[in-house]
Amino acid sequence: MKRDEETARGLAQVEGYLLWNAEVDEARRQAGRFTDQLPWLTAAQREDVERVYVTDRVAVCREALTRIAGRATELRGEYTARYERLRVRCVAASVMTVGAVSGACAAVSLINR
Fold first, then answer.
1. How many CB atoms lie within 10 A of CB 34?
2. Whether pLDDT at 3 is above 90
3. Cα 23 from chain centroid?
4. Against a cut of 0.85, is the pTM above it?
5. Which residue from 68, 53, 75 is spatially nearest to 16, judged by alpha carbons?
6. Whole-angstrom Cα distance, residue 43 to residue 99?
């Protein structure tokens, strides 16, 4: 079981790495498209604008992902607590139902004697 968890964690890390690199590549492509609209820039200015654009975009993405990850953790905690309460209620209802049925069966048995 532990090995499966480690494998899943490793795969999630690889997936995260690939997704992040794809995001950075997309930021670079968008930066290139943006500077293509500014033909008067020199090569050095173009590189500076693209670098600033990519840096800004990556920072915005990092902030968004951090916020999303935090919220996902909060939701996991909330849903785990709800699941535990629901499970306790279902077990209690099942025990009460079994008790009621057993009591009814015992009553019927005593009445039929």
1. 13
2. no
3. 18
4. no
5. 68
6. 82
